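A protein record in our archive is deliberately plain, so that people and models can read it alike. The record that follows is passed on verbatim for readers who wish to inspect the format.
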Amino acid sequence: MNIVFMGSPSFALPTLNYLVESSEHDVVAVYTRPDAPAGRGNKMQPTLVKMRAQELDIPVFTPATLREEGVAEHLRSLAPDCIVVAAYGALLTREILDIPKYGCLNIHGSLLPRWRGAAPVQRAILDGDDIAGVCVMQMEEGLDTGMYHTVGSVEVAHKTTEELLAQLADIGGRGLLDALARIEDGSYEWVEQDESQVTYADKVSKDETLLRPGRTNAEFLRRVQASSHRTPSRCVICGKKVTIVKAHPANHVLEQGKVGLEKKHIFLGLKGRAVELDVVKPESKREMPAKAWIAGLRNVDDPTWDVLPEYYHKLPVYG
C-alpha cells in the first residue's frame, strides 16, 4: 500500500519504523506537528517523527492545521491507499478522511471504548486500571468513536507512563502491519464501540500529578507513575523543590507531612503507611538515586514535606 503517516512524539516512532521496514508498504509522506520551542532556552525543536522521517529521506510536511488551504489537495495528489495516524495531535477533516481507499487508521493507546481522548495511558494509571492496551481504530469525525480492533494489552503494575507508552507503541506498530494485510483482503474483524462503556481521557494537568500529604500511598504512587515531563510529580521536601521519579510503599507509619531519614533511606508521611523514595530529580538538576540526595537534608531540625508553595492555597492540602 501507499501510506501517508501522521504522528509526532515517541509513541509514533515504532509504527513509522515498522511501516518503513515492511516490503509491503511505501511511506510516501509524513505529516507531523510544526517545530515548537522546548528546553531551557526555548529553542525551536522538531518533533521526533520529523527527525526520524528526515533520516529516512521521507518527505515531511508540518501544517499548523489540516484545514489549511491546499492540504487536502496535496494529500489527494499523493494517492494514499491508507492514512495511518499515531499521536499526531491534530484533527482530520471529513474531506481528508474520505481520501484513502482503505480509510484512515489510528493507533490508539487504550482498550476502547475506555479512555477515548488525548491521555489514555496516564488516565489508566491515575484511575488504578490493572490493564492498559492498544487498538487499531477506524477514524471518524468524532473523538475516537470509530470501530476498533484490540491488538494487545499489558499489565500496568508499577510501570511509568513512559514505560507503558513504549510497550504499547511497539505492540501497536506490529499490530498495524497485520491489520493492513487483513483490511486489504477484507478479513479484518472490527468491533463497534459500546457507548455505555465510554470513558474520556482528557489531557492531564500539572495540578493532577502534584504530590501532597493527605493522600494514601497508593494515590501518591499512582501520581508518580503517571507523571511526565509535562506533568511532573513534584513537591517540597525540607524546603527543596523536587520531582519524585520513582518510589515504593513502605512499612513505616509517619505523621502526614513528616519526613523520615534513616541512613540511606528517605520516607514521606502520608495518610496510612508511608512511601520510600527511590529516584528523585531536584530542581534544575539531573535525576539521581534518593540515597544520594539525602546528604543535603540531614541538618534540618524538623524535616517536613508539602505541596509546592505556589499551589498551597489553591488545592486542599489534606484529602
User: Anything to note?
Assistant: Helices lie at 13-21, 48-55, 71-77, 94-97, 120-126, 161-184, 217-226, 290-293. The first strand starts at residue 2 and ends at 7. The radius of gyration is 22 Å. The chain has a mean pLDDT of 94.
